Amino acid sequence: MLRRLGAEVTVIEAADRLLARVTSPPVSDFFRQLHEEEGVDVRLASQIESYEYVNGDVAALRLSDGSVIEVDQVLIGIGMIPNDDLARAAGLTVDNGIVVDEYCRAGSDVYAIGDVSRHPDPQNGGFRRLESMPNAAAQARHAADDILGTPAPYVDVPWFWSDQYDVKLQCAGLNTGYDEIVVRGDITVGRQFTVFYLKDGRVCAVDSVGRPAEYAAGKALIAGAAPADRQTLADPSIPLRASRRSRETSGGDREHCSLLVTPQLSR
What CA–CA distance (Å, rounded) separates 112 from 142? Predict the structure, then answer.
């Protein structure tokens, strides 16, 4: 946004790549190239050592490598720490957030939702804490359902998005622990591609740039935990189609399964 307003922008990143906490090196490289093409000065593996002031206003930054950058304004993003002091004082279980069950219950008649809640992870096991608007909105619905006596477990696939210039990045799932990536499209040419993250042969996450249909197909695959056909995922000439079916389980409950993405034959 600052570039669109005509400002000169320098990004100072402590990690050795952009978006290191949320995506893979190929996608990080793409976004670094994107910002540099738009005129942003990207400084990786850099830290601010000190600030220099003139008449009480910040005027320059001195970096850990000794370089100095003159500035008019500084925008600092340092992340969040869950504010769980009240929950801790109330005797609720706290572990990097307020621990809740699959119905967002933190205790008797107590619910916790949003960035501060740490809830069961149905896709990967264990617990997770998500800092995102879709997660907060979905948990609010599930908590309300439970209060109204119509409980439904929160098993939604996490999803996120980011608009940068004319590029929309859509992400689903969590790529923690992936052991293989499949790139669909050419990351180095144009501004459209999809990266599928596989764990034990199944899609656990997807990052898609400018390809919403492939993002949707990847999200369905994550929910269904279906084995992945790597050749189909990697071949842009094969349209992706995610289909669903229902089947009766041995206990009589209906289980909804996302099937493997299959090729659509062109006529």
Answer: 11
